C-alpha cells in the first residue's frame, strides 16, 4: 500500500528573516539582508518531505496576498495544496538577527469563522484510511484549541496515523485517541505537567513515559543543542546534536520531525532515522530557513546514538 501523507497548518505565516548590526529603539534600523519564506510548522514539514523525495498534500487556512504567496511557493516545489480560503490576510512573522541576539515577533493571524473550521474538519474526515497526517502549530483567532482533540478523534476513527506537534495542554486530551507520534520540546513537556524548573534528563524521560502511558504510541522530545530523545513501548534512544554556528532556531524542530518520519517512510531503521533527523534539525538551525540537505551527510558524522537502559 502506498502511504498518502498530509500536513495541516491551522495558522500559516510568511516568515521574514532580517539581519541588522544592532537593533536600536526609536530610530530607523536598516537591514543588511532580508528573506521571505512560506512558513507554518506543518508547511515546513511539507517542504522538507518534498526535498526528501516524498510527495504530500498541504492543508490548512490561507487568505489574502500572503496566503497566495504561500500556496504559490508550495506548488512551485511540486507540493499539492488543498487549503480552505478565508477572508483576511495570512500573518507575517519577523525574525531579527542582531549579531549574537535573535528577536522573534510572531503575530496571531486572521480570524477563522466557524463554517470554515467545519469545512477543514470535513476535509480531514475524507482523508483515506491508513494515511499519515501531521498537525503542527498554534490555532488562529476564532478556532478553539478543542479542534486538536476533534482531529485526534477523527484520526482514530478513520485509522489515520496522527503526528502531533502542538504547545497547547490540549495535547494531553488528544492522547486518549492514541496518536502515532507526538513531538514536544523540553519547554512544552514541562508546561504539560506544570513543572516550573529546568528538567533533568531523568525527568524528561519520566515525563515522556507518562505521555506513553496516557496513550501516545511514541514520543520524540526535541532538546535543542542537547539533541533529542525517542521513546516508545519498545525503544528508548537518545541522540546528540551536531555542533555549528546557530543562525536561526525557528524551524529546527519542524525539520527534525519531518526528517525523522520521512526517513522511516523511506524504510530506514529507527537509529538511522534519528541520526538523519538530528543532522537535518541542526542544519536548519545553521541557516535562515529550512535545510537544503546539502550539509547533512558531514553533520551526521558527529552523531552518536545511545540506547537508554535505565534512569534514576
How many whole angstroms does the radius of gyration measure?
Answer: 19 Å
Q: Would you list the SSEs in sequence order as H and E?
A: EEEHEHEEEEHEHEHEHHEEEHHHE
Mean pLDDT over all positions: 94
Strand content: 15-25%
The N- to C-terminal Cα distance equals 43 Å
The computed structural class is: alpha/beta
How many DSSP helices? 10
Model regions low in confidence, pLDDT < 50 over at least 5 residues: none
What does this structure look like?
- This protein has helices spanning 41-51, 64-76, 114-125, 146-157, 170-174, 186-192, 201-213, 252-265, 270-285, 296-300; strands at 5-9, 13-20, 33-39, 57-62, 80-81, 84-85, 91-98, 101-105, 132-136, 161-165, 181-182, 218-222, 228-232, 236-239, 305-307.
- It has 312 residues and is an alpha/beta fold.
- Helix 5 (170-174) links the parallel strand 10 (161-165) and strand 11.
- It is globular.
- The model has no long low-confidence stretch (mean pLDDT 94).
